[in-house]
Write a structure and sequence with these properties.
The chain has one domain (about 5-265). About 80% of the residues lie in helices and about 0% in strands. The protein has helices at about 5-20, 25-35, 40-60, 65-75, 80-105, 115-130, 145-155, 165-175, 180-190, 190-205, 210-240, 245-265. The radius of gyration is 18 Å and the shape is globular.
């Protein structure tokens, strides 16, 4: 992988992690366009590093909220911050279950499964379309909501299902306030990404070769900067109920991906 490819993939990850168009799906499409010959584990390593970059950009954007949550937790009281933390933990359960018992199966999806990406993008488009027509409310995320949103996050491991799109859409369809839905969606994934990287490094599943350091670093920086811009943009988009535009985009790209797969066989 060249530095140019790493920069392009980093920018794609940074933008699409927050915009509801599936970061993993677009990364797989970009790798197919570049003709990437990386084996599934190397491809997954690059994808995980870019996800870590966007997780870091999330912490920067929501630094005030994160500090408040940490302070609230260490007060050891059943306050709003502690409740929010528990909801985050509940939302992590489905993804942790999938990661522990089906990790090897899901790794196979990160090896040029363009037809799958196309189909999942169409599903993402439908979710966004339904969510964009949901009624506005001022409801907070409940404990039950957190678990349901966590299930959609687990399903978003599939490339082509937008994690932010699926979690925000499910939140809105459950009646959660749009701004609160976006905030919860962006913060709920951070512990999962950090935890996965720590676990993979400890077990040796995620390994870095010297030849990869340069491209991984360049990709990380590009994803971080793009993530900062996209996170702020997405919050404004959700408030204005403009998800239908992204639904149309996902549908078109999904059809193109399916058509590309069919025509190449």
């Amino acid at each position: 992988m060249s530095y140019i490819e790493a920069i392009v993939l980093g920018i794609i990850q940074g933008l699409t992690e927050f915009l509801p168009v599936s970061s993993s799906g677009h990364l797989e499409l970009a790798k197919a366009i570049f003709g990437s010959q990386t084996i599934p584990q190397e491809s997954l390593t690059f994808t995980v590093v870019l996800h870590f970059a966007t997780a870091l950009s999330t912490l920067v954007i929501f630094k005030k909220e994160v500090v408040q949550i940490v302070k609230g937790v260490f007060e050891f009281q059943w306050n709003e911050e502690m409740k929010f933390t528990v909801k985050i933990l509940i939302s992590m359960l489905p993804a942790i279950f999938v990661g522990l018992f089906f990790e090897e199966e899901f790794e196979l999806f990160f090896s040029g499964q363009i037809l799958l990406v196309g189909l999942m993008l169409i599903i993402t488009a439908l979710l966004l379309l339904f969510a964009d027509h949901a009624k506005d409310t001022s409801k907070k995320v409940s404990f039950f909501n957190a678990f349901v949103i966590g299930i959609t996050q687990a399903l978003a491991i599939l490339p082509g299902i937008s994690r932010s799109g699926a979690t925000i859409a499910s939140s809105v369809l459950l009646g959660v306030d749009r701004t609160k839905a976006a905030r919860f969606s962006f913060l709920m994934v951070v512990p999962l990404i950090v935890g996965k990287i720590i676990r993979d490094v400890q077990t040796g599943t995620l390994s870095f070769e010297n030849s990869q350091i340069g491209t991984l670093t360049i990709g990380f920086i590009a994803a971080f900067i793009a993530g900062l811009l996209a996170c702020k943009w997405m919050i404004a988009i959700v408030k204005k109920s403009k998800l239908s535009y992204f639904a149309l985009y996902c549908f078109i790209v999904g059809i193109i991906a399916i058509g590309f797969t069919v025509s190449s066989n």
